[in-house]
Give the backbone structure.
Amino acid sequence: MAARVAAGAGGGDALPLLDDLMPWSVRPLRPGRAWVTAPDAASLRARWDLLAAAEGAEQERLFRPSRSRTPLTPAASLPGRPTGTSAFARDPGPYPEPVRILHGAFDEQWLIPDHRLLDAARPELWRVADGHQLFAVEHGYVPQDNGPALSATALLPDGRSPAGRPGRIRPLYRRPGGREPNLAPGLSALLAARYGVPVTAEHVLAWTLASALPSPAGPLVPLPADGGPWAEGVELGQELLRLHLRGARGGERPRMPGGRRPYVRAAIPPRPTGPHYDAAEEAIVLGEGRVSPVAAGAWDFRVSGVRILELWLGRRTATAEGPPADGLEAVGPRGWPQERTTELLELVSVLALLAGLRPRQQALRERLERADVLTRDELRTAGLLPVPATARLPASVLDHQEEGPEGQFALL
């Protein structure tokens, strides 16, 4: 058997990649036009109505054509979404109800699920997105960044990265209904034999959230040689997963303990400017509006080197500070909706709670640096690597026909 090394001693090449452990991955969505997503669903309906009512050159201008999509491009319907398949200019069809997505890291937005409007919608993700599915989303790698290497979500993720090259989207299951875990064949059995406990796909995801290290090749996942660190890491990872899911799958919505819960101390104006952080008062300042207490760890929580709260707020206040948006992107709420405040308070809580778990993550990382871990060579000796080519391909999940362009059935 190949020699084992400590996680901090063997270099990145010695540790398995997340790509080794969860081999099927999908590239990020490529919408091709910004107006198909929005923080609120009502804006999307208004944009659709304007586009559908326009004609000719005006419709083309609003549409923002690309090489992949124009108003004259037919497209197959997205799996599970009964939308029009003829060219939008000829027959827009009924408005498809928007879907909640994860727009990059920790930013929940809405998307119009019409394949004719999306350059690359990744239908293989839509086929397995159901009430049992979870997604691991790799973050773009930025040198010297110590933020998380990946996120987890029950929403359909678009894979957008705040900075750096976007990572891959890895469904936890290859088939609907939580069937066929997206794990290297034999991984669960190998780990269960070593640790003396059952190892499920969600255990692997939880461990990865707690232990993964960013690298240019993708997240590195140190696997301990014995069960002590594993139990600690899975427990920590399950707490992280609960926060990432934000109440999905029947869990509780994240809440700060009493006395630390953020509140609106001064009303947020309809067109707030900022944001700024008042460290002395632990407050986010949005024009005349103030939200506190906001822990410094929440405000400074970064992904790929970018502050998440600053990015989230900047996307929602850009119209107040920058030049007027053009086209359908300019269509949005006239003020600051109440639900946006609710989402902000929850995001502050999520990031504060995640920041509060960082000391435990650091302690786990230090423990792994002293512990023996499984190397890629050892996984090869055990027959897990290289994974079969079929494990990197989507499973055949079709139990029905899907409608292709112009109403023809898709041949898949």
